[in-house]
């Protein structure tokens, strides 16, 4: 009944689906064969010719385009015709005139005397016998911060110390009670206020750490510090062992408006740290190492054996050339260095995260002992002054190794020197006998123009700073733990008529 | 008459202005010259750009003030010359309807 049967498959065509393949047409074409030909030529005669523009005239003017006259300001010629004679007559008679000889105008109160207006002390630091190692004015000129530590201690010091600030413009200033005391675990060797943010202070510690404090905070004042980086798990102190950080400074960073902290220490390292305030640490962004063999010599001076590191005791930034900085060393070398030096330093890597470069470019004539302080003149791009243990202040030009002038400041060590911010020819030096000597290079005599006795009973003066805003204030930090604020006389702060020219003359003299 | 290849050369007015400025610059102690137009925009100068702009702006205001002072005192009077003497130098200003000539001189140089 049932049989197997196979039927043909039935197909139903789709009504709506169309074939996706479109009609295709192909065409091809090709150019006709391209004809090429080669040929060579060579000149038989050669002639050389050169042109050069004439040196530009003193007056700035534009040459009219060739062939036509540039339309000039209408009436300019006639105007000059009208006024020229009168102006020339006035200029000539003014040059000969004696009408104003000896005529001086007093716009401000004249101050004849130099006086000590404040003697700031922190009694608990003085009881511990701490000395003022560094002072710094804030950029507004109203707050003075001082760092306590020890300069004469040879041992590894683990003493606690502090940083104190006083606001001199506040009413009710109590010289015996600082406005703010920041406790620090180690002695602080160097202090520097941020050049534009008045609440940030950078400090270099005896252990080699660098800390940035933010005085606006109420709780933990430390904004950032070194030695807390996450890539090493070593003790913070160990990372920079054997190095005392002698100098900190703020320098412009790679990005506009950013400042980075520069620290220099006895290990011969000059390091640049970026502030990472979120993480609370200072990140190493660039580093330089000063190695004795890489220092350019101008005389055979490497007589002393010892470590090949050149320990840095003082540093100065040039306000004229952001690339240059000067370094003074423990052995008496004064070096001109550059931030953009590319030579790699011949130092064994110490676990730093950046490659160290050798910055020294030029070496000045060396001293017999450590160079305690250097300062570049704010009025002449080539001048700087250096002081050290030989008791002399040497005035140098960046262009030559020998000093232009050497002045005897004191019979003992000289610990600090600063140029006056208002008078090009004036600088002040702090001596080991407790005096601040102020020298005026415009005077004929080489004796100081003024001597400020700090009344410390012969104890040394370690640091001094002029107030950046108020030109007549000078702060001086002493070994007995006090900071004296001096009010200078008008003679020491008002610029004379031809001082810049005299300074220029001094700088251009060649040392015999 | 200056000729070159038989053709008369056109005199360049530009030269006269430059010559005059050179003569003034050559006077004893002159440190700089600036010519400012009526709007206070410097059109010629022997100083660097930033100093020029600074002098031009400040001195224009000063001259306007001085002129109005003179005319307020006596409406028939007018400012002819202004000299500002300071510790370090002297600024001489010759005003006019369309231009000011500013000369900075250090008489003791």
From TrEMBL, chain A:
InterPro entries: Dynein_IC, WD40/YVTN_repeat-like_dom_sf, WD40_repeat_dom_sf, WD40_rpt. Keywords: Cytoplasm, Repeat, WD repeat. GO terms for cellular component: ciliary plasm; cytoplasmic dynein complex. PROSITE patterns: WD_REPEATS_2. Pfam families: WD40. One of its GO terms (molecular function) is dynein light chain binding. Its main location: cytoplasm. It is found in: Cytoplasm. GO terms for biological process: intraciliary transport; neural tube development. WD repeats lie at residues 461-490. This is WD repeat-containing protein 34.
Automatic annotation (TrEMBL), chain B:
Residues 17-105 form the Roadblock/LAMTOR2 domain. GO terms for cellular component: cytoplasm; cytoplasmic dynein complex; microtubule. SUPFAM superfamilies: Roadblock/LC7 domain (SSF103196). Keywords: Cytoplasm, Cytoskeleton, Dynein, Microtubule, Motor protein, Transport. Coiled coil: none annotated. It is found in: Cytoplasm, Cytoskeleton. Pfam families: Robl_LC7 (PF03259). GO terms for biological process: microtubule-based movement. GO terms for molecular function: dynein intermediate chain binding. PANTHER family: DYNEIN LIGHT CHAIN ROADBLOCK. Belongs to the GAMAD family. This is Dynein light chain roadblock.
